[in-house]
């Protein structure tokens, strides 16, 4: 079965209610289905311990490790945790092959939303005995697409790198404007399309609102409420209505307060045309 066909099945048929919090735009939005499903069965601390090469490349980012598993590791036969390996799950559950074929994220999706509750066996053939205490809990994750070759894409990558790893202490307020920093040529940002007063225009740092908007989408998945949020003046093409959050200078901002008793970390990664945001809570 072709990947796009399977993605369509994942998005439109199988267990849609389980992912009702993540609205679908089209079949391409199935990447979020895969991301959310893998996030439910993925153990970043375990993955880093099992695979030192990935840990070394991650620079400590648990989101980077999750993305590595979904884009690379799952196809290399790596374990998501001490209790799940997609290839082993496929081999132990022959009835699922008619639906997913060789499309391994489909098996992760099935186990996360159905197989685990059914008591199906997904135990890795190697590595199940490894026990690693988890240092952080994933609260929510979301991804949007962008053109990495465009000027706008370059601004997104710069802004995401500035936000990545931001620690929000208990009682502290996160500010997207503060985390991203001034959008100036001196800071590496370039001119790109922006919305100004309900019209398309060109401005320095165009595209950074996709960074703040993807943070807001991850907040919605995590159940973290915004203390300040402003919608765009025109619809955006990378998120559904009501899931975006524009920022502008120091006047419009996206903010939330850490109401937990532990540190909350905002991880953000932009690579290969996919911008991903994850909120992690210290255990």
Question: What does this entry look like structurally?
Answer:
By secondary structure, the chain is α+β, with helices and mostly antiparallel strands. It is 38% helix and 18% strand. The protein is built from eleven helices and nine strands. It has a four-stranded antiparallel β-sheet, sandwiched between helices. A three-stranded antiparallel β-sheet has the order 3-7-6. The chain has a two-stranded antiparallel ribbon with strand order 4-5. α3 crosses α4 (52-58) and α6 packs across α8 (104-118). It is globular and about 55 Å long. Residues 1-28 have low confidence and may be disordered.
Question: Topology, please?
Answer:
Elements: H1 3-12, H2 30-41, H3 44-50, H4 52-58, H5 62-73, H6 86-92, H7 97-100, H8 104-118, E1 136-145, H9 151-163, E2 166-168, E3 173-175, H10 176-180, E4 191-196, E5 199-204, H11 208-222, E6 226-228, E7 255-257, E8 264-271, E9 274-282
Antiparallel strand pairs: 1-9, 2-8, 3-7, 4-5, 6-7, 8-9
């Amino acid at each position: 079965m072709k990947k796009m066909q399977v993605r369509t099945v994942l998005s439109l048929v199988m267990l849609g209610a389980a992912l009702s919090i993540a609205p679908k735009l089209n079949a391409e939005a199935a990447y979020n289905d895969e991301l959310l499903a893998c996030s439910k069965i993925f153990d970043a601390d375990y993955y880093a311990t099992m695979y030192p090469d990935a840990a070394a490349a991650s620079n400590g980012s648990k989101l980077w490790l999750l993305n590595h598993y979904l884009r690379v590791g799952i196809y290399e036969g790596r374990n998501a945790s001490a209790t799940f390996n997609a290839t082993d799950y496929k081999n132990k559950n022959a009835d699922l092959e008619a639906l997913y074929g060789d499309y391994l994220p489909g098996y992760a999706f099935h186990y996360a939303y159905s197989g685990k509750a059914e008591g199906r066996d997904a135990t890795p053939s190697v590595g199940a005995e490894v026990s690693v205490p988890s240092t952080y809990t994933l609260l929510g994750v979301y991804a949007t697409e962008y053109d990495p070759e465009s000027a706008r894409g370059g601004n997104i990558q710069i802004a995401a790198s500035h936000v990545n790893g931001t620690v929000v202490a208990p009682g502290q307020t996160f500010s997207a404007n503060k985390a991203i920093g001034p959008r100036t040529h001196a800071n590496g940002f370039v001119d790109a399309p922006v919305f100004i007063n309900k019209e398309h225009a060109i401005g320095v740092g165009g595209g950074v609102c996709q960074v703040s908007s993807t943070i807001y989408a991850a907040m919605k998945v995590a159940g973290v409420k915004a203390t300040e949020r402003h919608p765009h003046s025109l619809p955006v093409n990378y998120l559904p209505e009501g899931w975006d959050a524009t920022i502008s200078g120091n006047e419009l901002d996206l903010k939330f307060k850490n109401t937990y008793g532990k540190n909350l970390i905002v991880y953000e990664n932009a690579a290969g045309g996919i911008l991903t945001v994850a909120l992690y809570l210290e255990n």
